[in-house]
Amino acid sequence: xxxxxxxxxxxxxxxxxxxxxxxxxxxxxxxxxxxxxxxxxxxxxxxxxxxxxxxxxxxxxxxxxxxxxxxxxxxxxxxxxxxxxxxxxxxxxxxxxxxxxxxxxxxxxxxxxxxxxxxxxxxxxxxxxxxxxxxxxxxxxxxxxxxxxxxxxxxxxxxxxxxxxxxxxxxxxxxxxxxxxxxxxxxxxxxxxxxxxxxxxxxxxxxxxxxxxxxxxxxxxxxxxxxxxxxxxxxxxxxxxxxxxxxxxxxxxxxxxxxxxxxxxxxxxxxxxxxxxxxxxxxxxxxxxxxxxxxxxxxxxxxxxxxxxxxxxxxxxxxxxxxxxxxxxxxx
Length: 332
Ligand SMILES: N[C@@H](CCC(=O)N[C@@H](CS)C(=O)NCC(=O)O)C(=O)O
Description:
lipid biosynthesis, fatty acid biosynthesis, isomerase, binds glutathione, mainly alpha, fatty acid metabolism
């Protein structure tokens, strides 16, 4: 029998969660239900139950992920909101020599890390194709040794890990950019905050209760690469699993009130802006793009709507939507 740490690791990708060691009766019972639900959904027989539930393995070879990881790594994506009423903040098309001819993003539509990369590509107006990865079979990235998304292929060069991808691209775009300045340090600090703090606020919020978990999975499954059968099963089983996982995550990250923590993070970010339009001043910097990217998947879910209603982040978010502008995604 799979241990609950497999279940907890469902959203490891999103949360960087180490597998939880304990087995709680309820969770195990629930996990069985989820397994049962998922095992009924293999539509062609080639996707075994363990594939469904175990889409990742730890170094020790333990199975670590599960449907909802698969699915749960996939937080959600934003519907691009219109920038009506927002002052004009434009994209910053690449001016340097760096003009990649062929950029392909392997992603889950709703993954916050993938959305971070997309926010960057959109803002710099770099055209990219998207290959939506099936989070259960991951057959689209079988060719790669790296088993997570995002993977970005830039003129044949494989780039992995959202922050590394952005560092590499930023270097190509601004090869002469000075490092070590106050602005540069500030940008680094807040990019770190996104990866180490902000992303951990997401899952506990979007899977906070059954209705929010279902809203999230409805979105995830309708925008991801799922077969019809997978979609139906993943929605209910994934939502149920992630509901429990989010409780574990709360504990792991010492979150008592997930909404309060999300609001606090939003306020912390607005304080960091210190009256500026963007952390980067009059233009977004990489930290602005990172915060915007990871929040995009939740912005139009209940948690994101609440966050915008209850905190001061809305104006900055609207400026970011205007700055990132329409997606530079092109047909694959
Ligand atoms: N540190 C990585 C984290 C990437 C990550 O964890 N991605 C998740 C999706 S949100 C993933 O692919 N998890 C593995 C899986 O789904 O099995 C980054 O910033 O790109």
